[in-house]
Write a structure and sequence with these properties.
CATH class: Mainly Alpha
Structural class: mainly alpha
Bound molecules: fe (ii) ion
CATH superfamily: Ferritin, core subunit, four-helix bundle
Low-confidence stretches: 1-15, 274-281
Order of helices and strands: HHHHHHHHHHH
CATH topology: Ferritin
CATH architecture: Up-down Bundle
Mean pLDDT: 87
Largest sheet: none
Helix content: over 70%
Distance between the termini: 64 Å
């Protein structure tokens, strides 16, 4: 069948069949299975939830920013996160799977709640640590994995988003270093406070078992496997922890404080790799 005839036949086919045709085409084109696309739908939906949380966090943080330039920069970050939501949602549309455009999993709501407490306490350092450092670090690990292991469309999109998230992390590192110089003790207290609230929530999402997401997406939770992305949970957790250690290091936090925090992560599944500098300190 010629391309034109195939397109006409596709247009005339019932909607269900049309959608199956498109899915089959993509599967052949990218040599990916249904399991792969279900996994990507799950990951993209959870990524969108993280982006929605980021939009809210950055927006809520604006009044705490000390200068007008800082406020403008923070609004820009919120705007970039909102573009990420639209990009991920349009990928779902192109690949013909459902993605959520709102937060579903409870961990995101928990982090949002802690972030709001920090705003109420006017603890700018805790806000920056939670959003710019911790959430961005996990976003970087996620988009890096999709860039490396995803199909060409997903990899290209992840690569674009990754550039923004790396920039957000750099902005956060510069901001935190400044605050650390002015008040090392206070900022280390904020780090400890934020770490124990946010890191267990973020780490618990490096998982293919969920609370409600698969039900909402109408996919079989038990059948999801990271093998479809040629990786596994342990590999991602190790990379996430190593990247977090690197972030804390770059922010100039005291290694004595951070080593104790990293150590505490073993209780919720964080096992640093042998070459992680702080973990072996
Ligand atoms: Fe983002
Ligand atoms: Fe970001």
């Amino acid at each position: 069948m010629s391309e034109v005839t195939a397109a006409v036949a596709d247009d005339l086919a019932p909607v269900d069949l049309r959608s199956t045709n498109r899915r089959n085409e993509l599967q052949t084109q990218h040599e990916k299975t249904d399991g792969y696309f279900n996994l990507i739908a799950y990951i993209a939906s959870n990524a969108i939830a993280g982006e929605v949380m980021a939009v809210e966090n950055y927006s809520e943080m604006v009044p705490l920013m000390p200068t007008t330039d800082d406020k403008i920069e923070t609004v820009k970050q919120a705007h970039e996160e909102s573009k990420h939501i639209q990009m991920l949602a349009s990928l779902g549309k192109r690949h013909d799977y459902t993605v959520m455009r709102e937060i579903v999993e409870p961990q995101w709501f928990n982090i949002r709640r802690h972030f709001s407490s920090a705003v109420q306490n006017k603890d700018l350092a805790a806000c920056l640590i939670m959003q710019d450092l911790m959430t961005e670090t996990m976003a970087i690990v996620l988009y890096r994995t999709l860039k490396r292991q995803g199909d060409p469309d997903t990899a290209a999109l992840a690569s674009k988003i990754l550039e923004d998230e790396l920039e957000h992390l750099e902005i956060g590192l510069t901001r935190i270093r400044g605050l650390l110089e002015a008040d090392p003790e206070g900022v280390h207290e904020s780090l400890k406070w934020a770490h124990h609230r946010v890191m267990p929530e973020l780490f618990s999402m490096v998982s293919t078992s969920c609370h409600f997401l698969c039900d909402r997406l109408n996919i079989d939770c038990g059948a999801l496997s990271l093998g479809d992305l040629k990786t596994d949970i342990d590999e991602i957790r190790i990379e996430a922890l190593d990247t977090y250690v690197e972030t804390l290091d770059k922010a100039n936090f005291d290694p004595v404080v951070t080593a104790a925090l990293i150590e505490s992560m073993q209780s919720y599944g964080g096992t640093p790799s042998m070459n992680s500098a702080l973990a072996t300190a």
